[in-house]
Design a protein that fits this description.
This protein has 125 residues and is mainly β. It contains one helix and eleven strands, in the order βββββββββαββ. It starts with a strand and ends with a strand.
Length: 125
């Protein structure tokens, strides 16, 4: 089951309105809106769910970093997600369904990992 979060919308890209910046529990997350049943406004707080979009190539590695964080790369939506692989969930700033990472990399289960994601999708509930 995917966990939901309360998120504050702090910015909407003026050129790509699906690209937004949210704050969840004090952490800034740049995402791509994959679903919204209504208009999204800056300053609004919404119930949301998150999902990683992974590239086709290998994108996960063990890391010594045990700090849960999301680092934005360049000016796009690419990011590195640092977290703990806990079975079917990557626990980071927010929890992500791991999309079978634990099957492809069973030796990383129970360890801190870095996932290089193409983007983070957000669905508004």
């Amino acid at each position: 089951m995917t966990r939901t979060y309360k998120a504050l919308v702090v910015a909407i890209d003026p050129f790509v309105e699906e690209a937004i910046e949210l704050v969840v529990d004090g952490f800034s997350i740049n995402c791509f809106v994959s679903y919204s049943p209504s208009r999204i406004e800056i300053g609004g707080t919404y119930e949301v769910e998150f999902e990683m979009v992974l590239p086709d190539e290998e994108c996960i590695a063990a890391t010594e970093c045990n700090k849960m964080q999301i680092e934005k790369l360049d000016n796009g939506l690419f990011c590195d997600i640092y977290g703990y692989l806990d079975g079917e969930v990557l626990r980071s700033v927010v929890d992500f369904p791991d999309q079978d990472i634990h099957y492809e990399y069973p030796h990383l289960n129970g360890h801190f990992v870095k996932v290089s994601a193409s983007r983070i999708d957000v669905s508004f509930c």
